[in-house]
Amino acid sequence: MNWAHYILQVNIYLVVFYGFYKLLLDKETYFMLNRIYLLSAGLLSISIPFLRFEWFASQTVSQPIYMGAYQLNSYISEFNQATPDSYAVWIGSVLVLVYVAGVILLTSRLIVRVIKASSSLKTTKKGTAFSFLNRKSIDPDLPNVDIIHQHENVHMKQWHTADVLFFEVLTILNWFNPILYFYKRSIRNLHEYLADEQAANFQGDKEEYAMLLLSSSFQVPRTSLNNHFFTQSQLKKRITMLYKEKSKKRAVLKYGLFLPLFALTLTLSSATLRTNDKVAKLTEGIPLNTSFFMSNGILDQNGQPRQDKVYDFVSIEKQPEFKGGMKKFYEYLHSSLKYPEGAVKNNIQGKVFLSFIVEKDGKLSNIHVDRKLGYGTDEEAVRVLEESPNWDPGLVEGKPVRVKYNIPISFSLSK
Question: What is the pTM of this model?
Answer without folding.
Answer: 0.54
